[in-house]
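Extended Data, panel c. Modelled sequence:
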Amino acid sequence: MLLIYAGVVDAYETYTVTEDALLINNPVRFWDSSKTWHWGNIHRMDIVVKRPEAKPSDVEMQIYFTPTGELNIEREDRRYDPALAQLVIDRAVLKPADKGNPQDLHSLPKGKATYIWNR
């Protein structure tokens, strides 16, 4: 039952990019149904390729956020979306942590890998 609920939560989650923030909304999530993550507080994004010869469903985005004046780190995981990934990188002014990070976010790498962008 819990796995079904988790699937429903993921299905209804939306990400909206504005000039000031990344808006994360999910009407079926009872806790934090909407979040506003200002670009200056998003400090990292990982793209995790889980297997060789990956399909889009084998790739995950992990976005990290620290609220102003706090030490805790929040993370949102979602299925990979290259257009959203590029917007997050651009708006949050994230830099590649390694020169091997892909320039073309629409091309999936051949092997398992984690690519990191941070401040």
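The first helix runs from residue 2 to 12. This feature is highlighted in the accompanying rendering.
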